[in-house]
Structure prediction request, 349 residues.
Amino acid sequence: MSTLESRLHTAVGKVREHWRGTRFIDGLEPGVEGTEALLELARLYRAYKLEIGRLGLLKGRAVAGLFFDPSLRTHTSMEAATGRCGAQFIHLKAGQGGTWTMEFEDGVVMNGAAQEHVREAAPVLSSYADVLAVRAFPHHPADRDEKVIRAFGRYAMGPVMNLESALSHPCQGLADGLTLADLGGGSFKGRKVCLTWAPHPRQLPQAVPLSVVRAAIMGGADLHLACPEGYDLDEEEMERATSFCPYTGAKLTVTRDPDAAADGALAVYAKGWGSAMSLEEHTARVATLGNWTVGTERMRNATAFMHCLPVRRNVIVTDAVLDGPKSRVIPQAANREPVQAALLLTWLL
Ligand code: CP
Prediction:
């Protein structure tokens, strides 16, 4: 065994000391120590990914990515991570033109549009692929129903990775934790991190902002969350995330003032998200809110700008910030591959 292989086995062993789970659904599953160990493994993968690509560590394994919704980064980074680890990636476009239309409710008479029940689909896919990775968005931001990812979690026979659901984008959160740690020189414990709501013409789900909150709390940040009235994040999920504060030393301040939240922050993370309002109410409300677009003035005393991408230029953030020296959106997106590889290696090495 090469030195690199042995280092990878040691790093995987450290993750498994803290986490033996096979579900990565909301990102809190590995716990504080498991998350730290996953980030350490991701750093090792990132530093040696070309060499790792020649080792074929997961040769003979397969990962199925089932996409009910579009993706650029998630799909490509999953395929890159899987291939570089030596495994095969099977990309499945779910629904029309892809797989059969799927049913998720139990006890239904399937005489409508759905041709296949997840109770069969999930174990069948598990018989071909060692890991199932699933993306399924909600239909409305107030829709808390995670029935697709939860059903795969229930019926799959092997590990299941959430590639974004109604309330969680855990791989994005893990990549964001890695990016924040990079900005902080290895850790962002005790550092001010700003998560700010930003305007968007659509009512987007809360999966990304909730995952940013979880990542910031798991890393022990001094998190300042700025959003207008009516756009507070899901109360139950916020309670679950903040229950980790006593273990990590994280602090949370919620404010209606984005300038105060951004002032002196290690990173200003902008994201549009929706609420229970109708689209018409949202559009009317956004027009009354003043300037929540992140510009150079808001970034004056902040170190870095972050966004998960795709981003609406000059709506969420100005060109000057996005194209300027403080923007970290490209390395942030690049960090998706190593964290997903870390999960695959933890489950399959
Ligand atoms: N950030 C993110 O998940 O990007 P995609 O929707 O392109 O996968």
User: Anything to note?
Assistant: DSSP finds 15 helices and twelve strands in the chain.
